[in-house]
């Protein structure tokens, strides 16, 4: 058995199912052991195990109070041994995502305080929990999503949340594409299914998700319109498959989109910018168009009355990757398609910025001030 990954204008790629089925025999964790990745919050059973041996310390970024990038502190933290259904992973590369900024600022509520941010990493398995089969020390695995805590040299993860990384893909590439690439996958393949003949509008087209989204939508046969804030980002968006690029800092993107589509409007808007673009995005849609509001880099969108959708019978959704990779099968298929598209050349991953993990504050400051493009990776 294997996973046949459809790849539109490329032959489909076969990924052996064993590669993606490591934890089929995993037992579910008792809920009392579902704990954040670092051990300070672990429950009595895990604590008892930890007292048997001297505590192992690793370096991690910790947030003790919400705020600007300066609240990201480089500290020693204790890490225990993996419990049932868990693995300990030594991280090789950690993906930086805008969601990390939301948690740091308190736009989204972290599950504990203090906490270690980060929702994406690639690393080597260095220990497996008792009774776990299908996962071995030395495996290179990737994860994206919950539990939070990837800004650390090592972390403990539920084994059923990780996927194996094909040996042809380096840890840095995998860490820059796991969360962002899976987001692009669910957006163009499942949330609104892009097909040849569609016209799509992608905001922040040169960003981490935006770059992959434009390449993928182009490969699916759509006409892609991208918005960006600078000339350099415009050049990148063009290379990434945008047929039209608009500098939305200097020009009215609604007028441009009307022009480009001869007044018809676009089939779908993928809007991750939020507050600053939401209303304009609605105005860019054709009758019965899809408004996919999947982020708020510029701020939270104001409440939308149903009546705002009525004049064009619009569809509105506010999706999240977590809810599109809820089951193990969804996770494996989504990651499998991303890795297959890298292997076949449909997706080119732009690792435009790398920082040492201890410099996470600088990386956050650069991401928030729109200085970055493509993916940003932290190296422990
Ligand atoms: N719903 C989900 O499941 C999901 C999953 C992943 C990501 N996301 C969302 O997707 C978006 C992109 O994430 P990413 O990690 O790839 O980040 P990113 O796109 O690399 O960075 C954000 C970009 O947004 C643009 N932007 C516009 N106004 C901004 C402002 N006021 N402040 C900061 N940036 C602004 C900037 O591009 P310009 O300079 O070109 O304007 C900036 O580079 C985020 O909103 C994130 O929350 C959602």
Automatic annotation (TrEMBL):
Domain Enoyl reductase (ER): 67-378
Pfam families recorded: ADH_N (PF08240), ADH_zinc_N (PF00107)
InterPro entries per the UniProt record, alphabetical: ADH-like_C, ADH-like_N, ER, GroES-like_sf, NAD(P)-bd_dom_sf, QOR-like
Origin: domain of life: Eukaryota
Keyword annotations: NADP, Oxidoreductase
GO cellular component: cytosol
Signal peptide: none
The keyword Glycoprotein belongs to this UniProt entry's keyword annotation: no
Gene Ontology molecular function: mRNA 3'-UTR AU-rich region binding; NADPH binding; quinone reductase (NADPH) activity
Name of the protein described by the UniProt record: Probable quinone oxidoreductase
Species of the source: Manihot esculenta
Lineage: Eukaryota, Viridiplantae, Streptophyta, Embryophyta, Tracheophyta
